[in-house]
Amino acid sequence: MITSDAPAIRVGTSGWSYEDWRGIVYPEHPRPRDEMRYLAGHLDALEVNSSFYRPPVARTTESWVRRTADLPDFRFTFKLHQRFTHQRAALWTSAEAAEFREGIRPVVESGRFGALLLQVPWSFRYLPENEQWLRRLADTFRPLPMVAELRHDGWLDPKALNLLRELELAMADIDQPQLEHCVPPTTLALAPVSYVRLHGRNARHWWNQETGSHERYNYLYSDDELDEWVERIRQISRQSREVYVFTNNHYRGQAPANALEIMSKLQGQPVQVPEPMLAHFPRLKRIAHPADDQPGH
């Protein structure tokens, strides 16, 4: 949601390439040739999750900029590669950092870069060695806007929050199952760019390593649960220059469904809803533009 007299609030999904979205988010016939551009036409931003598994390639990211050239307010954010956040047996090399920077360069140079997400596991706790790891990360990727997603509630210690402010690192405001020492919903705004990530509340499968990620993120937020977050987002925006909101409850298109509902609530008006989603999520009819909610649209 972009207006000239208010902080920019951009809403999107964590990733866009999911096999189980076909026929639910993306039409089967005809199938869109460009799923990224299709979804970008309905949302304000997209979080690149593939960059966690393999470093981005400049040729690819340049094409993303080109394919969204008609959407000047649209932004991409990138999840930092796991080499920097999860593989901590040895420090990364300058070549590894340079490779990642080069991959996102076209987006940064185009002005379409929103933030770099440093997502670490729940096991990454507020300890001296982890504090030093964050310091090195911040030094390596400065001056890019950076956000740390810290899932263990030890990071809510006032000393830890002061550290993040010192490093100019935002702390992601996240929604996750309320299990042992999990960070609860917050309204922290530690830097000019704030970041909200909604993972769902599937407590039954959150710690279960035997089930696939589709079960872990199998959750559709209720209207009341979204209202709670819309109020938090508004509070965060009053302390921020920009706010990014991403839904990560991706199973069977639930993330874009909730993202569109959040957009409509923030804007106070209907939004464009992809036609297949109206059939799979009937409740979206109440937020869809009248033209979207017509037979054969």
Overview of this protein structure:
It is a single chain. It contains eleven helices and nine strands. With 297 residues, the protein is of the alpha/beta class. It has a nine-stranded parallel β-sheet with strand order 6-5-4-3-2-1-9-8-7. Helix 2 (58-67) runs parallel beside helix 4 (94-110) and helix 9 (223-237) packs across helix 10. It starts with 7 loop residues before the first strand and ends in a 17-residue tail after the last helix. The mean pLDDT is 92.
Give me some keywords for this one.
297 residues; 11 helices; alpha/beta
N/C terminus separation: 25 Å
Order of helices and strands: EHEHEHHEHEHEEEHHHEHH
Radius of gyration using CA atoms only: 19 Å
Order of strands, main sheet, comes to: 6-5-4-3-2-1-9-8-7
Mean pLDDT: 92
User: What characteristic shape results from the CA principal axes?
Assistant: globular
Helix content: 25-40%
Structural class category = alpha/beta
Give the amount of beta strand, in percent: 15-25%
Number of strands: 9
Count the DSSP helices: 11
Low-confidence stretches: none
Major sheet attributes: 9 strands, parallel
